[in-house]
Amino acid sequence: MKLFLDCEFNGFGGPLISLALVDEVGKAFYEVLHCRSPVLWVKQYVMPRLNKEPITLDEFQKRLAIFLKNYDEIHIIADWPEDISLLLNMLIVKPGYHMPVPPLTIELWKLPAIGGFIESELPHNALHDAISLSINYHEWQCGVQAAV
What we know:
The protein has helices at residues 40-45, 57-68, 81-90, 126-147; strands at 2-9, 16-23, 28-32, 74-78, 92-94, 97-98, 104-108. With 148 residues, the protein is of the alpha/beta class. It is globular, with a radius of gyration of 15 Å. The mean pLDDT is 92.
């Protein structure tokens, strides 16, 4: 199953604030972690758009594990390398251990500069951005297949 990933984080290379995964049929995971000292840009553009109360890291990881157990195989698609890194770090539950996950592959994908794309309904909200990524990916796939 393809899962489309987007994250929000506290400045370039900063800690995770929110993570969303949206599958091909629209089932979604979206959770938010506490951000104690957001940088100015994040304070202005991300924090007001989270639309969800933060939870603890432990609870976040428990909910992520439950969501991922729904799949026999996972193909993560993201359009930014840091999102992949943040997701993989969330899989680590303690030194030497990661949560059980189905076989997992990763694709770093960027919409080719060949025309328009669907904008996120709420930019800088990980859930809406993951939905937009999913729509754009499928639209592009359909366009490529139609051209063949």
